[in-house]
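Subgroup meeting minutes
Present: P.N., E.W., G.H.
Scribe: E.W.

1. P.N. recapped why we're keeping a running log of single-chain structure predictions: easier to compare across weeks, and new members can see raw inputs and outputs side by side.
2. G.H. added today's entry (244 aa).
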Amino acid sequence: MRIFVVGGAGYIGSVCAELLLNDGHEVAIFDNLSEGHRGAVDARTHFIEGELAERQQIQTALSSYRPDAVMHFAANALVGESMQKPSKYFRNNICNGLNLLDAMVATGVRRIVFSSTCAIFGPPDRVPIDETAQPRPISPYGESKLAFEKILRWYDEIHGLKFVCLRYFNASGASENFGEDHRPETHLIPTVLQVALGERPNVEIYGTDYDTPDGTCIRDYIHILDLANAHILALGEAASGCYN
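Output recorded in log:
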Protein backbone atom coordinates (compact mmCIF):
# COMPACT_ATOMS: atom_id res chain seq x y z
CA MET A 1 0.00 0.00 0.00
CA ARG A 2 0.94 3.64 -0.41
CA ILE A 3 0.61 5.34 2.97
CA PHE A 4 0.64 9.10 3.60
CA VAL A 5 1.88 9.77 7.15
CA VAL A 6 0.97 13.20 8.51
CA GLY A 7 3.26 14.12 11.40
CA GLY A 8 5.71 11.39 10.44
CA ALA A 9 8.75 13.26 11.77
CA GLY A 10 7.53 12.92 15.36
CA TYR A 11 8.06 10.10 17.86
CA ILE A 12 5.16 7.78 17.05
CA GLY A 13 4.88 8.73 13.39
CA SER A 14 8.56 8.09 12.66
CA VAL A 15 8.49 4.61 14.20
CA CYS A 16 5.27 3.76 12.39
CA ALA A 17 6.78 4.90 9.08
CA GLU A 18 9.84 2.74 9.74
CA LEU A 19 7.72 -0.37 10.34
CA LEU A 20 5.54 0.34 7.31
CA LEU A 21 8.65 0.47 5.14
CA ASN A 22 10.00 -2.72 6.69
CA ASP A 23 6.69 -4.41 5.82
CA GLY A 24 7.05 -3.42 2.17
CA HIS A 25 4.70 -0.42 2.03
CA GLU A 26 5.52 2.83 0.25
CA VAL A 27 5.51 5.84 2.58
CA ALA A 28 5.30 9.60 2.16
CA ILE A 29 5.73 11.84 5.22
CA PHE A 30 4.08 15.26 5.48
CA ASP A 31 5.38 17.35 8.40
CA ASN A 32 6.13 21.00 9.15
CA LEU A 33 8.99 20.05 11.54
CA SER A 34 7.65 22.37 14.25
CA GLU A 35 7.84 19.55 16.79
CA GLY A 36 9.23 16.69 14.70
CA HIS A 37 12.81 16.41 13.49
CA ARG A 38 14.26 15.96 10.02
CA GLY A 39 16.63 13.37 11.47
CA ALA A 40 13.64 11.22 12.46
CA VAL A 41 12.53 10.88 8.84
CA ASP A 42 13.52 7.52 7.39
CA ALA A 43 15.63 8.02 4.27
CA ARG A 44 13.46 5.51 2.40
CA THR A 45 10.39 7.75 2.60
CA HIS A 46 9.25 10.54 0.31
CA PHE A 47 9.41 13.61 2.57
CA ILE A 48 7.20 16.66 2.06
CA GLU A 49 7.67 19.66 4.34
CA GLY A 50 4.32 21.40 4.55
CA GLU A 51 1.61 22.92 6.72
CA LEU A 52 -1.77 21.40 7.53
CA ALA A 53 -2.91 24.98 8.08
CA GLU A 54 -2.55 25.46 4.31
CA ARG A 55 -5.33 23.42 2.72
CA GLN A 56 -3.90 23.68 -0.78
CA GLN A 57 -0.51 22.32 0.31
CA ILE A 58 -1.98 19.14 1.73
CA GLN A 59 -4.36 18.71 -1.21
CA THR A 60 -1.52 19.12 -3.73
CA ALA A 61 0.59 16.59 -1.82
CA LEU A 62 -2.23 14.04 -1.71
CA SER A 63 -3.06 14.56 -5.36
CA SER A 64 0.57 14.05 -6.33
CA TYR A 65 1.27 11.01 -4.13
CA ARG A 66 -2.10 9.24 -4.58
CA PRO A 67 -2.01 7.22 -1.33
CA ASP A 68 -4.26 4.32 -0.44
CA ALA A 69 -4.61 5.57 3.13
CA VAL A 70 -3.57 8.32 5.54
CA MET A 71 -2.16 8.04 9.05
CA HIS A 72 -2.70 11.23 11.02
CA PHE A 73 -0.31 11.89 13.92
CA ALA A 74 0.12 15.67 13.66
CA ALA A 75 -1.17 17.41 16.79
CA ASN A 76 -0.27 19.43 19.82
CA ALA A 77 -0.36 17.00 22.72
CA LEU A 78 0.54 18.61 26.07
CA VAL A 79 -2.37 18.59 28.52
CA GLY A 80 -0.92 21.33 30.71
CA GLU A 81 -0.19 23.64 27.80
CA SER A 82 -3.69 23.12 26.45
CA MET A 83 -5.07 24.60 29.70
CA GLN A 84 -3.01 27.73 29.07
CA LYS A 85 -3.42 27.98 25.29
CA PRO A 86 -6.74 26.34 24.39
CA SER A 87 -7.10 28.16 21.07
CA LYS A 88 -3.79 26.67 19.88
CA TYR A 89 -5.14 23.17 20.49
CA PHE A 90 -8.55 23.72 18.93
CA ARG A 91 -6.99 25.40 15.90
CA ASN A 92 -4.22 22.86 15.29
CA ASN A 93 -5.99 19.67 16.32
CA ILE A 94 -9.42 20.41 14.86
CA CYS A 95 -9.30 23.18 12.24
CA ASN A 96 -6.08 22.00 10.61
CA GLY A 97 -7.33 18.43 10.77
CA LEU A 98 -10.39 19.51 8.81
CA ASN A 99 -8.07 20.72 6.05
CA LEU A 100 -6.69 17.19 5.87
CA LEU A 101 -10.14 15.58 5.72
CA ASP A 102 -11.39 17.98 3.05
CA ALA A 103 -8.25 17.38 1.00
CA MET A 104 -8.80 13.63 1.31
CA VAL A 105 -12.37 13.95 0.09
CA ALA A 106 -11.28 16.16 -2.81
CA THR A 107 -8.58 13.71 -3.92
CA GLY A 108 -10.53 10.50 -3.41
CA VAL A 109 -8.59 9.12 -0.43
CA ARG A 110 -11.11 7.27 1.72
CA ARG A 111 -9.21 5.67 4.61
CA ILE A 112 -7.56 7.25 7.66
CA VAL A 113 -6.02 5.96 10.89
CA PHE A 114 -6.23 8.69 13.53
CA SER A 115 -3.97 9.10 16.54
CA SER A 116 -6.46 9.77 19.35
CA THR A 117 -5.84 9.63 23.10
CA CYS A 118 -6.97 8.30 26.45
CA ALA A 119 -7.34 11.96 27.48
CA ILE A 120 -10.85 11.92 25.99
CA PHE A 121 -12.00 9.97 29.07
CA GLY A 122 -10.86 12.02 32.05
CA PRO A 123 -11.00 10.30 35.46
CA PRO A 124 -12.36 6.77 34.81
CA ASP A 125 -15.29 5.21 36.64
CA ARG A 126 -13.56 1.84 36.36
CA VAL A 127 -10.39 0.27 35.03
CA PRO A 128 -9.47 -1.05 32.62
CA ILE A 129 -11.14 1.55 30.40
CA ASP A 130 -12.93 -0.11 27.50
CA GLU A 131 -14.75 1.30 24.49
CA THR A 132 -18.06 1.52 26.39
CA ALA A 133 -16.65 4.08 28.84
CA GLN A 134 -18.24 7.51 28.61
CA PRO A 135 -15.87 10.20 27.27
CA ARG A 136 -15.50 13.12 29.69
CA PRO A 137 -12.40 15.12 28.71
CA ILE A 138 -11.08 17.52 31.34
CA SER A 139 -8.65 19.47 29.15
CA PRO A 140 -8.79 21.29 25.81
CA TYR A 141 -6.36 18.68 24.48
CA GLY A 142 -8.73 15.80 25.27
CA GLU A 143 -11.69 17.82 24.03
CA SER A 144 -9.98 18.54 20.72
CA LYS A 145 -9.29 14.85 20.09
CA LEU A 146 -12.85 13.84 21.00
CA ALA A 147 -14.24 16.53 18.70
CA PHE A 148 -12.16 15.19 15.82
CA GLU A 149 -13.42 11.65 16.47
CA LYS A 150 -16.98 12.96 16.14
CA ILE A 151 -16.08 14.81 12.94
CA LEU A 152 -14.68 11.59 11.49
CA ARG A 153 -18.01 9.85 12.11
CA TRP A 154 -19.82 12.52 10.10
CA TYR A 155 -17.28 12.36 7.27
CA ASP A 156 -17.81 8.60 7.16
CA GLU A 157 -21.59 9.01 6.98
CA ILE A 158 -21.54 11.84 4.42
CA HIS A 159 -18.42 11.12 2.35
CA GLY A 160 -17.76 7.41 2.98
CA LEU A 161 -14.40 8.17 4.61
CA LYS A 162 -13.52 5.08 6.64
CA PHE A 163 -11.60 5.68 9.85
CA VAL A 164 -9.98 3.93 12.78
CA CYS A 165 -9.25 5.95 15.92
CA LEU A 166 -6.67 4.51 18.31
CA ARG A 167 -7.03 5.93 21.82
CA TYR A 168 -3.75 5.11 23.42
CA PHE A 169 -2.17 5.89 26.70
CA ASN A 170 1.54 6.61 27.27
CA ALA A 171 3.86 5.41 24.51
CA SER A 172 7.39 4.44 25.51
CA GLY A 173 10.48 2.74 24.19
CA ALA A 174 12.21 2.90 20.83
CA SER A 175 12.65 1.06 17.56
CA GLU A 176 16.02 0.10 16.15
CA ASN A 177 16.46 3.57 14.65
CA PHE A 178 14.04 6.02 16.27
CA GLY A 179 12.88 6.98 19.76
CA GLU A 180 11.67 9.84 21.93
CA ASP A 181 13.17 13.27 21.27
CA HIS A 182 10.77 15.91 22.53
CA ARG A 183 11.98 19.50 22.84
CA PRO A 184 11.44 20.46 25.56
CA GLU A 185 11.30 16.98 27.08
CA THR A 186 8.29 16.50 29.36
CA HIS A 187 7.75 12.73 29.21
CA LEU A 188 8.55 10.74 32.32
CA ILE A 189 10.83 7.96 31.05
CA PRO A 190 13.18 10.22 29.04
CA THR A 191 13.25 12.62 31.99
CA VAL A 192 14.30 9.86 34.39
CA LEU A 193 17.02 8.79 31.96
CA GLN A 194 18.26 12.37 31.69
CA VAL A 195 18.64 12.47 35.48
CA ALA A 196 20.52 9.15 35.39
CA LEU A 197 22.85 10.61 32.74
CA GLY A 198 23.43 13.77 34.76
CA GLU A 199 21.67 15.97 32.20
CA ARG A 200 19.13 17.36 34.68
CA PRO A 201 19.18 17.56 38.49
CA ASN A 202 15.97 15.78 39.45
CA VAL A 203 12.58 14.41 38.44
CA GLU A 204 9.47 16.23 39.61
CA ILE A 205 6.43 14.10 40.42
CA TYR A 206 3.15 15.99 40.32
CA GLY A 207 0.14 15.14 42.48
CA THR A 208 -0.16 13.56 45.93
CA ASP A 209 -3.89 12.85 46.17
CA TYR A 210 -4.39 10.02 43.66
CA ASP A 211 -6.23 6.90 44.83
CA THR A 212 -3.00 4.88 45.00
CA PRO A 213 -0.94 3.43 47.87
CA ASP A 214 1.37 6.47 48.05
CA GLY A 215 -0.92 9.10 46.53
CA THR A 216 1.10 9.50 43.33
CA CYS A 217 -0.08 8.76 39.82
CA ILE A 218 0.15 5.26 38.30
CA ARG A 219 0.72 5.43 34.55
CA ASP A 220 -0.17 2.91 31.85
CA TYR A 221 2.43 2.41 29.12
CA ILE A 222 2.42 0.79 25.70
CA HIS A 223 5.63 0.00 23.85
CA ILE A 224 6.09 2.05 20.71
CA LEU A 225 6.58 -1.05 18.53
CA ASP A 226 3.27 -2.53 19.72
CA LEU A 227 1.59 0.81 19.06
CA ALA A 228 3.07 1.15 15.57
CA ASN A 229 2.00 -2.39 14.71
CA ALA A 230 -1.53 -1.56 15.90
CA HIS A 231 -1.64 1.31 13.39
CA ILE A 232 -0.52 -0.99 10.59
CA LEU A 233 -3.15 -3.59 11.53
CA ALA A 234 -5.78 -0.84 11.55
CA LEU A 235 -5.15 -0.24 7.85
CA GLY A 236 -6.85 -3.57 7.17
CA GLU A 237 -9.95 -2.82 9.24
CA ALA A 238 -12.94 -2.59 6.89
CA ALA A 239 -15.38 -0.92 9.29
CA SER A 240 -14.92 2.43 11.00
CA GLY A 241 -14.44 2.47 14.75
CA CYS A 242 -12.57 3.71 17.81
CA TYR A 243 -10.43 1.43 19.94
CA ASN A 244 -8.68 1.80 23.29
